[in-house]
Design a protein that fits this description.
Elements (H helix, E strand, L loop, with lengths): L2 E6 L4 E6 L2 E4 L2 E2 L6 H19 L6 E8 L5 H11 L7 E6 L9 E8 L5
Parallel strand pairs: 5-6
Antiparallel strand pairs: 1-2, 2-3, 3-7, 4-7, 5-7
């Protein structure tokens, strides 16, 4: 089976396609923005990467969300709830973790199926 790397860099690829599965790297927004703004930026990045891979948000299998502070849970969820495909919601987990820089408030990691595979 071939492995396709999307937007590869020296340290990591933004997405990797193996078989019928798309694995996205953790996506973050602009440091210092509100958690709602960062979440919106991240979800736009996720959509763009999934499109480039041959998938979309209706094919997301799972999402792992890391918040720097769980007090931002409701603000992040408000943006997520407007974005997520309500007919095809993924499995999801949310936890609190120290992120790469103090300005990052949320990071989202997604695994999806290719659209033509379903």
């Amino acid at each position: 089976m071939t492995i396709r790397r999307i937007q590869p860099g020296a340290r990591m690829s933004q997405a990797v396609v193996h078989g019928d599965t798309v694995y996205l790297a953790g996506q973050v927004g602009a440091p210092g923005e509100s958690v709602a703004d960062q979440t919106a930026q991240i979800l736009a990045s996720i959509e763009a990467l999934l499109r480039e891979a041959g998938s979309d948000k209706a094919h997301i299998l799972s999402a792992t969300i890391w918040l720097a502070d769980m007090t931002d849970f409701a603000a992040m969820n408000a943006v997520w709830d407007e974005w997520v495909d309500r007919d095809h919601p993924p499995a999801r987990a949310t936890g609190e973790a120290r992120l790469a820089t103090p300005g990052h408030k949320v990071e989202i990691i997604v695994v999806a199926a290719l659209a033509q595979a379903s």
